[in-house]
Known about the structure:
The protein is an alpha+beta fold. It has seven helices and eleven strands.
Amino acid sequence: MENNNEVSKATMMEQEIMRGRDMANQLLQVVVDSRNEEEIERSTVMPFAEDAVRKVLRSFTNTLLLLNNEDTKESSCNSNNNKKNSSSNKSQKGYHKRKSAAPSWQSDSSILCEDGHAWRKYGQKKTINSNYLRSYYKCSYKNEEDCKAIKHVQRIQEDPPLYRTTYSGHHTCKCSFVNYPHMKLESAPSLQESSKLLSFNNNYYNNNTLQSKEMKHLSSSISSTKQEPVEVIIPNDDHNQIHLLSDCELDFNYSSTESVAFDIFMGMFKF
DNA sequence: AACATTTGACCCTC
DNA sequence: GAGGGTCAAATGTT
């Protein structure tokens, strides 16, 4: 009985997360569609908003994977045992080990969802039970970081359109900053050992974006989640960089801009 | 030129 | 042997 309650609770949690992910997808669509509108493009808001939504999507995806990995841990262990006796170390073209029959996680959506991760398509197949092609994707960082995450997407219904995405494996790649070409966190070798340098790409922020005054406000709003004082340096000659003289975990809380999206982004930007 | 997608072949599991 | 998952060469796109 108690077990049933836990299962339904987990299902409800999963449904809520999926609902959140779908809403974030819709928001992302609005942001992406707005790129071509000249006025919005010139503002500081859209790059931040788009990044924020992508990060939200990634969180939803990872949470769903974690939830479902717990569920399928046992079955995948069993299937691994079954495979122990099969041949190994083959490198011929097309050689592969068939994935476990139980997917890590699958979800249906009326739109082709983005999930915040970068995928590379590596194949597509017409399956016997469907009139539509199934597309196979692997993580874009599979080669660089040996990330094992894969997914396949299949249309399962014509009208209204419905797509089923099945994920296997979870992301082990450190792609957090790769998808944020305009912001970069790195060591600041010229300063003290534990300092960090937060860089803003000039292409995004040179024109009417973050002004000196705003940067100073931003720096004063940076606080430590460990309640420790954080020392910040803003170089006079370069308004696109902030030096963070601390090795502790930081939270941004920048609220002077009129943009809610900017707030969300800064609120999420934790390292 | 570099990167992404398409497509047919290959090979495993059932 | 059928069906499905993956590879890699060919092709397309930026």
